[in-house]
Amino acid sequence: MKKLEKRSWAEPFKIKVVEPIKMTSKEHRLEAVKEAGYNTFLLKSEDVYIDLLTDSGTNAMSDYQWAGMMIGDEAYAGSKNFYYLWDNVKKFYGMPYFVPTHQGRAAEHMVSQILIKKGDYVPGNMYFTTTRLHQELAGATFVDVIIDEAHDPGDPHPFKGNVDVNKLDKLVQEVGADKIPYVCIAGPVNMAGGQPFSMANLKEVKSYCDTKGIDLWFDATRAVENAYFIKTREEGYADKTITEILFEICSYFEGLWVSAKKDLMVNIGGIFATKNKDVFEQARNLVVVYEGLHTYGGLAGRDMEAMARGMEEMVQYDNVRARIGQVEYCGNRLEEFGIPFVKPIGGHAIFLDAKAFLDHLPQDQFPAQTLAAEIYIDSGVRGMERGIVSAGRDPKTGDHRYPKLELVRLTFPRRVYTQAHIDVTVESIASVYENRKNIKGLKMVYEPKYLRFFQGRFDRL
Ligand code: PLI
Q1: Burial letters for 199-217: b for 16+ Cβ neighbours within 10 Å, e otherwise?
Q2: What's the CATH number for 64-314?
């Protein structure tokens, strides 16, 4: 008889509405991916079986959020949903000033346009695609100051999102503090594999920056997951709530932005928030140019209501634990087959190590792009490339950037898939892994100017 060794967790919700998904044949998928230029972003979603492309806007809202959609106040100005959302921004992120945006990158655009001058440098704990592009378009150069461990997929450091203060200091010495409008911190770090920073590191960065008069700005898109890792991994935080930890994190920042399409479990929405009244006034003015009036920022009243309610749910410990627990479950199962992926298991996704998985392909044959296409062909599971294609070209030299991390991201929408979907996914990847030596690389046949991973096209070699 088996001895009881551990007790399982289960999701703190049950399913009330279901959406049928289409099963497709391998022949159909071969044709579909060819037509999509071997780019999973260009597949039609109806050709996808299990969609792990992103956790952005793909979450299942609760009945409480859907009920909120019915009380949308669709006034052009001063919607009551806006004021409720603003109250919750103060309550959960601790920022007194707030401007809604239609999604995260619209807030990144405003932060970059307001804070950056041409010729500035923005240090950050690894780049994110849209964040860095907006910094560059505003005239800055992004400088990666994350700890070295973050660039090593096998390194087990529990806080691979930490900033290396020596790297930061080196940049300050080189270019001068007046050329650094802010330090850009994200947590968990998406491109590093969903890896968090620690509170101790954040405090260290904050005290260093205080001595130099440099502000910290926070990409709080998945901040709740970072708070969960602090609670479960960092000494002194086990007894604090997610709400308390999130509030403490935010207290070290001058301002923040959020793609509400993640933590807040909605399909659309973004947040710009700050303690700085002058920066707020500028954002409130800029938003009317690009998004809409400052009390809706490109959103419907009902969307703001769903965001406000999602915020109340995102900090519930059981929700976060189940969300990260599902990612962990997937990682532990992949481990059984010896499949290489980024360790420790991150917050929102599993990142397959495509360099190790397809170690016979050089990086300029796009191993991660290839692997994402092969997994799709095998089972209809859709992931995304996070390697050389996502890294883009150096704006100064025009050459490919060659990132150390060449990854395929399998991202888990919140409250959407079951454990059986994860099992099917893992078995598909295991099957591709068994056949890996027969896989050939890709060549790029079309490359758009900005964010090429979205629309680039490839052909098999
Ligand atoms: O997709 P947006 O415009 O709502 O947000 C941009 C954005 C900003 N920061 C971070 C850390 C993100 O992850 C992010 C968007 N991420 C996407 C779309 C993703 O698939 O990860």
Answers
A1: bebbeebbebbeeeebbbb
A2: 3.40.640.10
